[in-house]
């Protein structure tokens, strides 16, 4: 995970593992610049998960471009509707805006995992 220290990358991996274990969904994070449009790139990352994409959630964050996308598969979307993802994205953006990349990521992963677990 480019741009993170080893300890921060470990924290993100642990947060992903916890969200997956609790919710039963597949979570992924990509940090970096998109190739092409941000939304299209995030959707391609999600599609690359193949058979797992139906129950997957991908968080794409472009720190340099100051943007992010959350993409959910069809099954995941039933437990994480667009409104819930928007609210989480707004909270993440607030953390990012004050320079707290890791805090925003950890919050977003945990919040989405908890919301998906509550709707299980």
Automatic annotation (TrEMBL):
Database matches in Pfam families: DUF5130
InterPro entries for this protein: DUF5130 (IPR033437)
Highest taxon, organism lineage: Bacteria
Protein name: DUF5130 family protein
Organismal lineage: Bacteria, Bacillati, Actinomycetota, Actinomycetes, Streptosporangiales
């Amino acid at each position: 995970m480019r741009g993170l220290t080893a300890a921060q990358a470990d924290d993100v991996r642990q947060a992903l593992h916890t969200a997956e274990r609790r919710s039963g969904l597949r979570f992924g994070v990509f940090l970096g610049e998109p190739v092409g449009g941000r939304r299209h790139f995030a959707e391609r990352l999600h599609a690359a998960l193949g058979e797992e994409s139906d129950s997957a959630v991908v968080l794409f964050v472009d720190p340099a471009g100051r943007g992010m996308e959350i993409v959910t598969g069809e099954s995941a979307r039933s437990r994480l509707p667009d409104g819930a993802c928007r609210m989480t994205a707004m909270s993440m953006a607030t953390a990012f805006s004050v320079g707290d990349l890791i805090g925003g990521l950890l919050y977003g992963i945990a919040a989405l995992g908890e919301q998906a677990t509550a709707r299980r």
